[in-house]
Amino acid sequence: MKRKLLLLTFLLVHCLSFSQSELYVLLKKPVNNTPSSTYGGSQCRIGDYNYWYSISHDTGKYDINQNKLNIVVDYGEAYNDDPGDHCNGPCGQHQAYCNGKEIDKTLNHFDRVVVTYMGPDPIECIATTCLPINYHAVLLPKVITPSDRRCERDVLFEQYSDGLDHNVTGLVWEYEDKYLGWQEIPNYKSRYPLNVSLLEIFGANWREKIGVNLNLRFKFTAPFTTDTVASIQNYTITLTECSPDFVSYYNLSNTSCSYKSDGKVSVKLSNNINSAEQLVATLFKEDTVNGDILINQYSTKQLSSTDTTVLVLENLGGGSFGFDWPKYIDAGTYYFRYQVLNIGDTPPKPEKTDDPFWYTLVKTEPSFTIEKATNITFEAERFSDENCVNSKDGKIRVFNVSGGTGQGYEYELNESNNWIPFDSSNIKVNEVIIGGREKGIHKVKVRDSKKCLAKE
Question: Is this prediction's pTM over 0.85?
Fold first, then answer.
């Protein structure tokens, strides 16, 4: 008989370029006492004995620069069945047991190798199976730490390209509690990638456990051993506050007069902020020629030592909150960009929308328009002269009055500051006859119901 010689080969893949995959392996071999043991008071094998494993990837973690990997696990054993000087056949040759590779498998992402050994441990008299080993391995796609910030509603890692949620048996995510150190996450602990949010994992009280950054790692475990394999890297994710959703504009009003810049707007949001946060909003005016113009910026806390203006959030009911923009607005088309920040942050002007500081910056869409009130125009003429000298019964006609609110007009004569409404009984609401005038030059002014004057 022929002795079977196998070489123990460890295929260690060293990542010389960008790593695409990570392999995690745990194994446990039973103790083999056969070469030196007796069984039932008599020898359980004849002559000398040996056994061997050939395993491509032993316990550990491996950076892999490709999307698939071949795993080999091979076991063999042999013993001399013709010992001594008076053998009945060719002496000193060994009987090989377990020929061929027990596992020779190509793994793609999320594929696993699971071998469960159910035999005796220790082995006292020749293995009864051709694979006396516990062996768990999994090939995972490499995920990288997000480069931008994450708020509580954002998924921590992007979904895997196949669009499926993968829960990996044996994988356990851990986070660094700011008081207790490393702890297992309470939910989704086997999800890979961890394509869920802070809220889904920890609930609304996540701030009680986590500081400015979320530190994550995972470990690979197996039921046959207390040993674990730590993730190749730790992940530090920078956190930011989530901004409320934009709901609508309200209390939108145009400029009251054609020559004023007193438009107003209020903004309705989906929810409130907490006491550890501030809401910063910036008003932009659209300009298709020169580029949009930053008008001003305010927060729910005072941003400037010279400007005490702050935003005040008002409970609108139904869970919604809103704020009145604290400054008057000129005619034009506008939008806001707003974001919730930590109360201690000093925000820069959001000139660049790709600035990572403004990760959860919300743009209110569509834009809103403040219309300029229509200018008031009118005509005036001498309607009739005095009938007699000093009779003071001359008349002035004011007509073709238009613009403004169109909801009624008043006139004033000769800077008297005595404003008299047009006669509401007059069929022509945009015309009035002013009597009782003496000979001379008279100056007429007209304004509308909002006290806006007609101007050239």
Answer: no
